[in-house]
Amino acid sequence: MNTAMIDFSILWPALAAGLLVTVTHVPLGVQVLNRGIVFIDLAIAQIAGLGVILADRLGLEPQGSVVQVFALLAAVGGALLLTWTEKHWPEVQEAVIGVSFVLAASGAVLLLAGNPHGGEHLKDLLVGQILWVSPARLAIVALVYAALLGIWFARGQQTGRMGFYLLFACAVTISVQLVGLYLVFTTLIVPALASRRVTRYRLAVGYALSAAGYALGLVVSTFWDLPAGPAIVWVMAALAIVVFALSGRRP
After folding, report:
1. CB 218 within 8 A of CB 204
2. Do 175 and 48 touch, CB atoms closer than 8 A?
3. Of 169, 198, 228, 235, which residue is 20 to 30 A from 73 by alpha carbon distance?
4. How many domains does one find in the chain?
């Protein structure tokens, strides 16, 4: 009984974090898929991670506000660069995004080369530590996400190219430090892919799929003692296949 209570005390903040990421990233993911820039989240997330690693290299407190500023500035810088390249070289934008990701990823490896805990930091950036999310941190994240969602649903397409990239950079910067790069990419792209044949209530289907993926993934992770992030990724992908198959049926 005590073990179950301890497990629940860990799982509910993790699920809350997943639901927060779901609420913001599902609509952004649909837009990313429509724009044909699927790997932008990987690039901007990795650039934000590079900012976090740089701050760590400078000896700053890992969870401090200065680190968040470093991450956000790096992500916004990457977003502005990709805005410029999309405007001037739209035909090779996906390639530019890929190169940006590789440069940021290899830069992170170089910065961590002399750090005895470098491998652990890199793993945290990619896989995340969703099971160790602080409830106090979730309240701050919820407020920021609410502001971003308010802007997105109020302005939508009117934000323009630069507005979209900047909103995206802010959301991804927060999410990558909350759940890790793999889950950020999965939450953005998998629900959008699975629901692309849904003509009505597409966002609702995407939200339900992502929420179920986080909930069931955490259960699978706990039951079989597996890493939470990868378990959620696989469960969400499996659910997405079912949703996509069902959405293709005609009455």
Report:
1. no
2. no
3. 228
4. 1
